[in-house]
Amino acid sequence: MTFEQKDNRQSCPCPKCKSGNVVIYRKVAKCQNESCGLTVWRSIAKKELTDGQLTDLLMNGKTALIKGFISSKTGNTFEAAVKFDADYKTVFEFPPNKGGSKKRRTK
Ligand SMILES: [Zn+2]
Q1: What pLDDT shows up at residue 96?
Q2: Vertex 56 angle, CA 98 and 91, to 5°
Q3: Which of 3, 12, 18, 73 has the most beta carbons within 10 angstroms of its beta carbon?
Q4: Distance in Å, CA 38 to ligand 1 centroid
């Protein structure tokens, strides 16, 4: 008997090399293709991403807005989306300021 899902690990296609599979482990998501080396840490700014958020990042290139990150500089909490930069490192994408934007009227 073989049970492949005993660890209940999720995996999805790798956005970087396109041929490998990214397997989501407890602390990290990692591409199985050794020459690719895509690695995404689950813990970002003192927040642990969920499997769903990691999958969003891998499948769509970015997550939805996530609340509860903590800045290492100021200690303040903030919200941001997580996305890949050109090197497939994780970076924050902050929501646009709603307060300061000009309203455009449509005719
Ligand atoms: Zn890969």
Answers
A1: 85
A2: 60
A3: 12
A4: 5
